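Work Package 4 report. The design task specified in the project plan requires that, given a folded chain encoded as structure tokens, an amino acid be chosen for each position. We show below one input record used in the internal validation round.
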């Protein structure tokens, strides 16, 4: 992406940064000259095969279990139109705009590879749809994560044909035909193989994986910051964060999390009091093992990003055009297993990170384990309940995230008259991961509320928090997360904390003192 907020797609794939720029930053999309040349070359191969008498899957046959029928030339435009219409069979709530934009961009990336056989004008039409900020209505249910994200991609292909519904630039959902008439592009008539090529990819689950990786990278850093604040508030020891201890067990994520916590705790007057009034040899697991748990999640994220990078360089279609040999060959590259597995793995890591965060919060609120803090961090305990029910909310979120951590990718329901008899359920894995990421954001926000309040209570007793902790607390207060005191309507403060975490304010406040965190 260049300084004009523009992404250029070539035939060799794209990057995660470009996906995020298009999906969330609404960056403009352009096709490179190399991509247009690759598209034209692949199309010539498809046209030659379409003119030949021998049947070729996707070019001159039916689809799935109906591939045994040879389709004459006069019915092939109808064949491609019909596969889009019949497969646009999603149900349920609308999928978020950023997901649909990511899905469309990634399908365009595969088209631009020159291995699908669509005409350049079809690829240009998809780029134009993205640039006009017309987002087709895609529904929650309809993909089994094999043979591609069929129903979601079909709803997008339907929009290229000028049919269905879409959200316009103003956010209103209207008939696609009206939106195209106002904003362009013109509807396209699909020819041999083009309908199938628009449907047959892992683009939805991959788009959600890329977006989740972007979110989780920030959330792992947020969790390191809140864990450091909790350690301070509990008068714990930072000696367990020493680099030489983590070098003994050389997991890179663990070392990164420990280093983050050390940076946040630098200059703290609260750490090291574990031998004072109630001597402790060591802190509880939820505090002492924070880098090990968050670090394992970081390493899981690194693996997921490796898988995403491979998919971003791939051309996922069936059949696929092989320009090197002039052939069009059936294959199984549309199977979503590689993506589905890491989507499930990330949901497990997110649930466990939320679980340890909730345990730290509970420790801050329990007078028997908080080393001198008031019950529930309340102003006048008994009259005030403090953050008691905020922890209930956190616990409810964690419980849901544990349910969401059950893998989707181990399930499979046969389809298409047993022709498609093993599927990945990767779309389902992606959808539940998005919910888990939202849950983790809220769980970390609750820990932030508790830890910031507890740090302020320690400061009132004459103990000085670290400069980074002080900066985080001040920024949180500025963002609407209020400090200790009597009970008040708490939901707006929790919402403010969530926005502070989600929007990057927490990381920015800490980094203003620590410098860049991992």
């Amino acid at each position: 992406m260049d300084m004009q907020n523009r992404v250029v797609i070539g035939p060799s794939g794209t990057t995660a940064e470009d996906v995020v720029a298009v999906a969330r930053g609404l960056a403009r999309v352009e096709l490179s000259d190399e991509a247009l040349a690759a598209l034209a070359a692949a199309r010539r191969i498809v046209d030659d095969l379409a003119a030949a008498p021998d049947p070729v899957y996707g070019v001159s046959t039916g689809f799935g279990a109906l591939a045994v029928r040879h389709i004459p030339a006069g019915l092939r435009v109808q064949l491609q139109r019909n596969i889009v219409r019949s497969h646009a069979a999603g149900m349920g709530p609308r999928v978020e705009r950023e997901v649909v934009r990511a899905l469309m961009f990634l399908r365009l990336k595969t088209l631009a590879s020159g291995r699908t056989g669509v005409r350049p004008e079809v690829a240009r039409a998809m780029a134009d749809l993205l640039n006009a900020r017309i987002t087709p209505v895609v529904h929650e249910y309809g993909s089994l994560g094999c043979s591609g994200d069929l129903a979601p991609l079909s709803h997008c292909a339907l929009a290229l044909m000028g049919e269905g519904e879409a959200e316009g630039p103003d956010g209103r959902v209207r008939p696609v035909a009206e939106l195209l008439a106002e904003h362009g592009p013109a509807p396209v008539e699909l020819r041999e193989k083009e309908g199938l090529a628009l449907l047959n990819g892992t683009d939805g689950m991959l788009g959600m994986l890329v977006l989740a990786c972007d979110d989780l990278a920030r959330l792992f850093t947020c969790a390191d910051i809140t864990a450091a604040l909790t350690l301070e508030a509990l008068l714990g020891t930072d000696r367990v964060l020493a680099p030489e201890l983590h070098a003994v067990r050389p997991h890179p994520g663990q070392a990164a999390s420990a280093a983050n916590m050390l940076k946040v705790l630098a200059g703290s007057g609260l750490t090291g009091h574990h031998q004072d009034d109630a001597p402790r040899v060591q802190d509880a697991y939820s505090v002492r093992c924070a880098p090990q748990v968050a670090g394992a999640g970081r390493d899981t994220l690194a693996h997921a990003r490796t898988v995403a990078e491979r998919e971003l360089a791939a051309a996922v279609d069936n059949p696929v055009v092989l320009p090197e040999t002039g052939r069009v060959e059936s294959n199984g590259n549309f199977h979503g297993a590689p993506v589905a597995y890491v989507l499930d793995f990330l949901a497990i890591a997110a649930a466990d990170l939320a679980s340890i965060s909730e345990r730290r919060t509970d420790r801050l609120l329990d007078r028997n384990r908080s080393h001198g803090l008031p019950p529930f961090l309340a102003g006048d305990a008994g009259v005030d309940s403090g953050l008691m029910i905020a922890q209930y909310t956190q616990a409810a979120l964690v419980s849901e995230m544990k349910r969401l951590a059950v893998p989707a990718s181990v399930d499979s329901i046969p389809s298409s008259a047993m022709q498609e008899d093993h599927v990945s359920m990767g779309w389902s894995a992606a959808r539940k991961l998005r919910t888990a990421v939202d849950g983790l954001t809220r769980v970390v926000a609750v820990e932030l509320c508790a830890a910031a309040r507890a740090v302020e209570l320690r400061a009132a007793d004459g103990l000085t928090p670290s400069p980074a902790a002080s900066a985080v607390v001040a920024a949180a207060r500025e963002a609407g997360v209020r400090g200790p005191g009597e009970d008040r309507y708490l939901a707006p403060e929790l919402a403010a904390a969530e926005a502070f975490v989600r929007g990057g304010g927490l990381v920015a406040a800490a980094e203003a003192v620590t410098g860049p965190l991992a």
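The radius of gyration is 26 Å. Validation will be extended to a larger panel in the next phase.
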